């Protein structure tokens, strides 16, 4: 795995040692020797991970970390504090400053590389989500900026056969989160299939294989939930294996409840940030293929689906039909009652359209008062019957507008076409349907005209 790592330490020998170790493992290494330079370099170079010494003159590691996490350009970059201090107060202070983890001097190479690889994997996933969300925003389909992400009220699953230890963890977290404890491995794996914000696993459990629980929790509905692995600090091999299998953080025993609470808040906040980005991306993708006014598919989506269906039809697959429809005298609605009333008509028409087509059909708004229904597997006669049903439903009852104060009689003209075999294209299909609409309007409107090839 190639990743960019920023090493920050005021001692030249420490910088060179870490730089050499990381370079041998093919990491791209940047270095600096003070907090202010680290802030500038991080914003400009966007490293995948920052190894930050705590004891530096001027701005120490805690303050540097706090500022990194306060800036929009750098808050997503994982920060590992490197310290000769091993006291609980320093770990809690670092977690509250936003640190993602700690390494204690002298640095164990195995733990160093396990940490670096675990956190850079996470960073790359987050980067991909952020880049996609930013691309959507530039295209004008992104949502608002990030809301304030809470770290309370998380859904936490504790998987531990040590009832006393599980009770300590549960009591500490129950003040802020919704906690479930499972001591049975089968029940635990079943619970992992549900939505969770944090999973805490005793990887040294005696009644089940805790490492297997870590591995299996990375699949299913809870695969995005961070995993906090409870392990003895002396069990280096087990700690490294847990990280390799997908654990995102380590909770050393004996458990310090304040450190536990701080680590849980850090992991849940990060999980919610990831969820927020995915939610924005999903919404942006939906907006890209959906007509904002009617909620139907838009022209872009229709074109892609129709192309695939016609290609299949001309190569021996089932036929596809289209209904092209235009609301009669729609301009007069806007001219007489205003564009808000016109929007009400379009919205109500979309509802009637969607309730009169098959579940497999794709009702779409082409633009203005023009709509299309793509009908996979439909012959010309089948499509004509559906079109007639839509026409009758639209004409049967008046459309209520202006908050129900006015009603309008609305009719539509519909052209119907279906694929004819080899040589047909979406353009030709829509052209035949458009000819049907033109003929229906020329013949007095409120008609369905089917156009064979």
UniProtKB/TrEMBL annotation:
In-chain residues carrying the UniProt-annotated modification 4-aspartylphosphate: 53
Annotated transmembrane regions: none
Catalytic reaction list: 2 GTP = 3',3'-c-di-GMP + 2 diphosphate
Domain Response regulatory, first and last residues per copy: 4-120, 155-268
Name of the protein: diguanylate cyclase
Keywords: Phosphoprotein
PROSITE patterns, A to Z: GGDEF, RESPONSE_REGULATORY
Family annotation (SUPFAM superfamilies): CheY-like, Nucleotide cyclase
Entries under Gene3D superfamilies matching the protein: 3.30.70.270, 3.40.50.2300
EC number: 2.7.7.65
Phosphoprotein in keyword set: yes
PANTHER family, per database record: DIGUANYLATE CYCLASE DGCM-RELATED, REGULATORY COMPONENTS OF SENSORY TRANSDUCTION SYSTEM
Domain GGDEF: 318-453
InterPro entries: CheY-like_superfamily, Diguanylate_Cyclase, GGDEF_dom, Nucleotide_cyclase, Rev_trsase/Diguanyl_cyclase, Sig_transdc_resp-reg_receiver
Superkingdom of origin organism: Bacteria
Pfam families (alphabetical): GGDEF, Response_reg
Annotated source species: Brevundimonas albigilva
């Amino acid at each position: 795995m190639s990743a960019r790592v920023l090493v920050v330490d005021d001692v030249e020998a420490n910088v060179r040692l870490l730089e050499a170790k990381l370079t041998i493992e093919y990491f791209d290494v940047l270095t600096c020797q003070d907090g202010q330079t680290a802030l500038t370099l991080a914003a400009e170079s966007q490293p995948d991970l920052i190894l930050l010494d705590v004891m530096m003159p001027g701005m120490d590691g805690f303050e540097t970390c706090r500022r990194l996490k306060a800036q929009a350009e750098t808050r997503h970059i994982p920060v590992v504090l490197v310290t000769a201090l091993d006291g609980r107060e320093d770990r809690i202070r670092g977690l509250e400053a936003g640190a993602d983890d700690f390494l204690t001097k002298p640095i164990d190479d195995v733990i160093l590389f396990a940490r670096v690889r675990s956190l850079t994997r996470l960073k790359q996933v987050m980067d991909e989500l952020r880049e996609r969300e930013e691309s959507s925003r530039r295209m004008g389909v992104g949502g608002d900026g990030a809301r304030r992400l809470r770290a309370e009220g998380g859904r936490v699953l504790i998987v531990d056969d040590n009832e006393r230890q599980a009770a300590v963890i549960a009591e500490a977290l129950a003040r802020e989160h919704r906690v479930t404890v499972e001591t049975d491995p089968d029940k635990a794996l079943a619970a992992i299939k549900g939505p969770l914000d944090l999973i805490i696993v005793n990887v040294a459990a005696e009644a089940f294989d805790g490492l297997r629980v870590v591995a299996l929790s990375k699949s299913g509905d809870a695969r995005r939930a961070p995993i906090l692995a409870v392990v003895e600090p002396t069990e280096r091999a087990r700690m490294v294996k847990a990280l390799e299998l997908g654990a995102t953080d380590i909770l050393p025993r004996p458990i310090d409840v304040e450190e536990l609470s701080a680590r849980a808040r850090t992991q849940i906040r990060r999980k919610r940030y990831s969820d927020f980005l995915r939610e924005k991306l999903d919404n942006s993708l939906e907006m890209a293929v959906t007509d904002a006014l009617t909620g139907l598919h838009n022209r872009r989506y229709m074109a892609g689906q129709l192309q695939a269906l016609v290609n299949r039809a001309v190569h021996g697959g089932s036929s596809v039909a289209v209904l092209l429809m235009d609301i009669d005298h729609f301009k007069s609605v806007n001219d007489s009652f205003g564009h808000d009333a016109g929007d009400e008509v379009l919205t109500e028409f979309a509802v009637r359209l969607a309730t009169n087509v098959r579940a497999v059909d794709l009702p779409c708004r082409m633009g203005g008062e023009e709509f299309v229904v793509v009908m996979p597997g439909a012959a010309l006669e089948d499509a004509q019957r559906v079109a007639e049903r839509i026409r009758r439903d639209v004409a049967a009852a008046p459309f209520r507008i202006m908050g129900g104060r006015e009603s309008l009689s609305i009719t539509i003209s519909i052209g119907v076409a279906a694929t004819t075999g080899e040589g047909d294209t979406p353009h030709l299909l829509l052209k035949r349907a458009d000819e049907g609409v033109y003929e229906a309007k020329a013949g007095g409107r409120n008609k369905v005209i089917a156009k064979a090839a």
